[in-house]
Amino acid sequence: MPNPGERFEVPQEMRAFAEKSVEQARQAFESFIATANRTVSMFEGQAETTRKGAKDLGERAMTFAQRNIASSFDLAEKMVRARDVNEMVKLQTEYVNEQMKILTDQAKELGENSARMAKDATQRKQ
Q1: Taking the complete model, does pTM exceed 0.90, yes or no?
Q2: Contacts for 85-90 with beta carbons within 8 Å, 24 or more apart?
Q3: Count of structural domains within the chain
């Protein structure tokens, strides 16, 4: 049993695994934000109604981003408490699978809202 004054060393495999999980979460988040920013930018310069719609869409995207960041922090907390590498692998796999589903649903919602805004803008111009 280690002495209370001894420092606990995290095994290199666990450190690498945690870093990979964080990197995957960061990449998914960056991809989501880039898509949200492109969507909002598409509507800049339109009529006031469209600008309001773009603002609402941007706010929705930021809400999604906040949820995704919170989910990443939840994973990090669970990883720190994992008993062994197998549990870490299980947690990370569950996280990645769930985040991919969530990001797909979020992108679908943003896409549908964007299409609806474009359709409304086109109808107003006619």
Answers
A1: no
A2: 85/11, 85/13, 85/14, 85/17, 88/14, 88/17, 88/18, 89/17
A3: 1
Inside any domain, residue 98: yes
Cα–Cα distance between 49 and 124 in angstroms, integer?
10
* Helices assigned H by DSSP within 43-84: 48-81
Cβ pair 99, 74 in contact under 8 A: no
The predicted model gives 110-126 an average pLDDT of 76
Please give the Cα distance from 40 to 93 (Å, whole number): 31
Let me know: does 57 contact 39? Beta carbons within 8 Å: yes
CA distance 109 to 53: 14
Its domain, for residue 40, covers 33-125
